[in-house]
Amino acid sequence: MWGSKVSASGSRRRRSSSLAIAAAAVTALVAGGSGSRAAELFQIGLPLPLNAVHQDAAGSFVTVGEETFQLLPCDTPAGVCLQTITSRTISKRVPSNVLPDGYIAIAEAGDIRNAWYGQPTDRYDHGVLGDAIEGGSLVVVTEGREELEFVLPESQVFEDITPRIHDLDGDGTNEVIAIRSSQTGGSAVALYGVREGKLVELGASSENGQPNRWINIAGIVGNGDGTATVYAVRTPHIGGRLFSLSYANGEVTESGTLAIDVSNHVIGSRELGLSATGDIDGDGKDDLVMLSQDRTRLRFPLNDLPDIAIPATIDKALIVLNGRIITGSTDGMLLAIKP
Predict the structure, then answer these.
(1) Does position 328 have pLDDT exceeding 60, yes or no?
(2) Alpha helices in 146-271, H assignment, sequence order
(3) Residues linked to residue 338 through DSSP beta bridges, in sequence order
(4) Cα–Cα distance between 230 and 218 in angstroms, integer?
(5) Rounded Cα–Cα distance for residues 140 and 145 (Å)
(6) What is the mean pLDDT of the chain?
(7) Average pLDDT, stretch 213-239?
(8) 114-131 confidence digits (pLDDT tens)
(9) How far apart are CA 302 and CA 7, in angstroms?
(10) DSSP H or E stretch at residue 147
């Protein structure tokens, strides 16, 4: 496999003796500008430019050309290595007759085990995700293998790719978290659940106020008491305002703006994961990491850590692995950042 180390004096390439794991490559100090802090940046050696970063229940992966490699924690300065794999199971694509490029959300416990978007429609003319097709319904499969569907009115769509399943109020039953957009008010975060054998809407955030104004989910963070909070970004391409949503006692509570100048999406992209949750500072609690509007800084709005400046523009998903933030740049570099 590959690995290269770059210093101020030049670069070199070496091959792993095992040919099974690719070691991390570049080590550099990321010098922060005003309001930023220093961190270590590692560039992982790749034979071709990076196409995608992906994390699911099966693990963490990168796609290079037509090959997929698994990211694994390892004892190197970068803290991660790449292992060759022959095949893997990713989040299952939905049937071909429903939302194009949609995926099935999977939960290991709770009353709702699967969720996806159905009834594709072009009735919402926005295309923020790179195409004109959005979901007209939400489909779930219960623990008892019963399939239930919630159909939106003609004035609304699910402007999303994959729903999220989580027990937000800690009562042992799951909620489905979706991005719902309307012809009059734009996007909102909407919650769904099973009640008396039916899939129903439980509540939603406020809408953005006008059509073609989108919201992207930033992450779901546990509160340490069995409940969890949903964080989302209003208009991630226009100013980017972070807010939160909680669900308790059958009611949705929405915060005001928690941070500005944040983003977790490139307009027209199918990649919704330009933010991530995970324990970054080693305190045993999940942090939220996302990007600045220009996508050249990592931001940590929940714990007020200073920004980390990145010497590249980010357009690949962010994941947290082994205390590192893994992502990729527009020019195909695979980066591991150690705060």
Answers:
(1) yes
(2) none
(3) 40
(4) 8
(5) 9
(6) 87
(7) 97
(8) 999 999 999 999 999 999
(9) 34
(10) strand 147-151
Average pLDDT estimate for 179-189 = 97
Q: Which amino acid is at 48?
A: L
For the whole model, what pTM was predicted? 0.89
Query: 227: exposed, middle or buried (C-beta count within 10 Å: 0-12, 13-18, 19+)?
Result: middle
First-to-last alpha carbon distance for the chain, in angstroms, is 27
Specify the amino acid at residue 163: P
What are the start-end ranges of the H helices in 168-284? none
- Alpha-carbon separation of residue 131 from 125, 152, 164, 267 (angstroms): 9, 19, 21, 11
Distance (Å, rounded) from C-alpha 289 to C-alpha 283?
A: 15
Which two tokens mark 9?
């004096």
Amino acid (one-letter) located at 175: E
Residues with Cβ within 8 Å of 17's Cβ and at least 6 positions away in sequence, in order, are: none
Residue 16: partners with Cβ closer than 8 Å, 6 or more residues away:
1, 2, 3, 22, 23
Residue pair 325/337 in contact (Cβ under 8 Å)? The answer is yes
Q: For residue 6, which amino acid is it?
A: V
What mean pLDDT do residues 243-261 have?
97
Buried/exposed code over 210-224 (b: 16+ C-beta within 10 A; e: otherwise): ebebbbbbbbbbeee
Alpha-carbon span 129 to 85, nearest angstrom:
30
CB–CB of 264/289 below 8 Å? no
Supply the pLDDT for residue 305.
83
Are the beta carbons of 179 and 204 closer than 8 angstroms? Answer: no
- For residues 100 and 97, give the distance between their C-alpha atoms in angstroms, rounded to a whole number: 8
Per-range mean pLDDT, top range of 124-133, 158-167, 300-309: 158-167
Residue 3: both structure tokens together: 């690995």
CA distances for 191 relative to 54, 196, 206, 249, 320, angstroms: 25, 16, 12, 14, 26
pLDDT of residue 41: 92
Which structure tokens are listed for 228?
């969890």
User: pLDDT-derived band of residue 13, with 50, 70 and 90 as boundaries?
Assistant: very low
Asked whether 180 and 152 are in contact (CB, 8 A), the reply is yes
DSSP 100: T
